[in-house]
Design a protein that fits this description.
4-stranded mixed sheet, elongated, 24 strands, UDP-n-acetylglucosamine1-carboxyvinyl-transferase, Chain, 30% helix, cytoplasm, pyruvate, UDP_GlcNAc_COvinyl_MurA, alpha/beta, 417 residues, single chain
């Protein structure tokens, strides 16, 4: 098992390039199930979750080949309708294969996903939506078994905004008979990227990026070539890395408009952000101002940036209040930040952070993907040495982040425990 050794106190400088989006790549990979043929997906990040998705596709009968950050997916011979627990348990997004398998093969048997460290994240909205599209669904022995000769369009109103549910039903409805309307749909940029892919395959989808999506079912879809959008959460993490170290960095391959809520908050903190010629320059402030944030569904402040922002507030002038409104267990990084000397109190879904002058390096343990990034950021700003263990979480969502940070001047290295 690997860990990271960080010697903090260095101001970051230089240029870094953001990888393709993990959260966009996963449903795009799954969407290739919908039609036979060879697809080419570029700007794909090298991540554990990508490898897991490839294994799922190969189990279903796809042939997957990689060349750098370009992945070829040939789904001509997809004929296995079952995704087993051994694969699905390692990544919740695997459940997204249910709808595409049902749409293409008329049946699917997919394991229920396991638990999640940051919250329950049930798939009941996925199943309710598929049932509305005409699927016959049974839960037996930990598996979802679904059948339908052909799905049919329906009006589906989500009880809560769900990214995975919106993506899942967009894919399932693409070849359903008639029109499907998704109301209270999630609006994330990754959903727009998936809609672009589906439309290029021949689907008829309107309204992606708004809370109402209309899908007119078509009889068949074809293969596609697509370049995955940049990873906005990785980009945001680098922005905070510049801020927390008082650095001055330039970020390539990012779409700043996808991070408006974070940008506004960082500017309130005192960070200077300049977007010129598609390169974003981020200059950390001399003094970090404490501000309050509340996580919300997109376009609100992203829950996936909450932990990283909390690390920044640990060094702010004054107190900050951070409210987590998406996941119920997403403050597990607090106890680890306190090992750096941070002053944080938690009550329910609210954390109060009283800024201190200096963090002190410490051995810490990552509890989930974004918590891993939070601890790295704290380590970059802390004095002495920080050791971050259990970084296998990190490898699920950040491509070679220690190498990218080292390229910006950070003293960080990966070693075997």
């Amino acid at each position: 098992m690997d860990k990271l050794i960080i010697k903090g106190g260095k101001k970051l400088s230089g240029e870094v390039t953001v990888s393709g989006s993990k959260n966009a790549s996963l449903p795009i990979f799954v969407s290739t199930i919908l039609a036979p043929g060879r697809n080419e997906i570029s700007n794909v990040p090298f991540l554990r979750d990508i490898n897991t998705t490839i294994k799922v596709l190969e189990t279903l009968g796809a042939v997957v080949e990689g060349n750098g950050n370009v992945v070829g997916i040939d789904t001509t011979n997809v004929n296995n309708h079952e995704a087993t627990y051994e694969l699905v348990k390692t990544m919740r997004a695997s459940v997204l294969v249910l709808g595409p398998l049902l749409a293409r093969l008329g049946k699917a048997r997919v394991s229920l996903p396991g638990g999640c460290a940051i919250g329950a994240r049930p798939i009941n909205l996925h199943l309710k939506g598929l049932a509305a599209l005409g699927a016959d669904i049974n839960l037996t022995h930990g598996y979802v078994e679904a059948k339908a000769k052909r799905l049919r369009g329906a009006r589906i109103n989500f009880d809560i905004s769900t990214v995975g549910g919106t993506e899942h039903l967009m894919m399932a409805a693409a070849t359903a008979k008639g029109e499907t309307i998704l109301e209270n749909a999630a609006r994330e940029p990754e959903i727009v990227d998936l809609a672009i892919v589906l439309n290029n395959m021949g689907a008829k989808i309107e309204g992606a990026g708004t809370d109402t999506i209309r899908i007119t079912g078509v009889n068949e879809l074809g293969p596609v070539s697509h370049r995955v959008m940049p990873d906005r959460i990785e980009a945001g993490t680098f922005m905070i890395a510049a801020a927390i170290t008082g650095g001055d960095i330039r970020i390539r391959n990012m779409q700043l408009e996808h991070l408006d809520a974070l940008v506004f908050k960082l500017q309130d903190v005192g960070v200077e952000i300049i977007n010129k010629d598609n390169i974003v320059r981020v200059k950390g402030p001399r003094k970090i101002r404490g501000i309050n944030i509340k996580t919300r569904p997109y376009p609100g402040f992203p829950t996936d940036m909450q932990a990283q922002f909390m690390a920044l507030m640990c060094l702010a002038d004054g107190a900050s209040v951070i409210s987590e409104n998406i996941f119920e267990n997403r403050f597990m990084h607090v106890s680890e930040l306190m090992r750096f000397g941070a002053d944080i109190t938690v009550e329910g879904n609210t954390a109060t952070v009283k800024g201190i002058k200096k963090l002190s390096g410490a051995p810490v343990m990552a509890t989930d993907l974004r918590a891993s990034a939070c601890l790295i950021l704290a380590g970059l700003a802390a004095d002495n040495t920080t050791e971050v263990s259990r970084i296998y979480h990190l490898d699920r969502g950040y491509e070679s982040i220690e190498k990218k940070l080292a390229g910006l001047g950070a003293d960080i290295q990966r070693v075997k425990e």
